[in-house]
Design a protein that fits this description.
The chain has about 200 residues and is an alpha/beta fold. It contains nine helices and five strands. The longest helix is centred in the middle third of the chain and has 27 residues. The termini are close together.
Length: about 200
Amino acid sequence: MKTIGITGGVGAGKSTVLAYLEEKYNAFVIQADEVGHIVMAPGQECYQPVIDLFGKDVIKNDKTIDRKRVSDVVFEQPDFLSCLNGIIHPAVKRYILKSLEEQKKEGRKLCVVEAALFLEEHYQEFCDEVWYIHTDEEIRIQRLMKNRGYTREKSLGIIGNQASEDYFRAHTDFVVENNGNVEKTWKQIDEGVRRNETL
């Protein structure tokens, strides 16, 4: 089984790449952000620790955690962020590793792991190869404004807080340019998969 890691800045169109890999290559796709939601659900590993950290005010009527309230607290009091990350990130990684092990047992040929903090959290340690999805900054800004309703200033602020293009390129094995020409993007993904088959 081959495991490809996917990273890149916000608005790079990583989900487009994931969907193509899933559809064309029957890849098992797992996204750290979605796993983050799962591990915070009632009865899951991070549910009680998050409530212990933020207090009962973050519990909604349906007993789920109010993620917006959590993010508001974190925004106003950044100290809480490192505590929250200390709870969530290790649990997410454990969940992903367990899922990959299950897929391997089932005979899956290709797994794909996507995470916003892929390099920072050292996900590359359990991937055969890491791909960087690169998109020009102006295209990313336009996507964020259109798809998420962000202002130009907010988009620039988020992009500015993320790792630089040079950092991504220096720490990944393969680059997929995703500037809007899907045929070109698909071609590069196909090339990346072929590379992996020979690794």
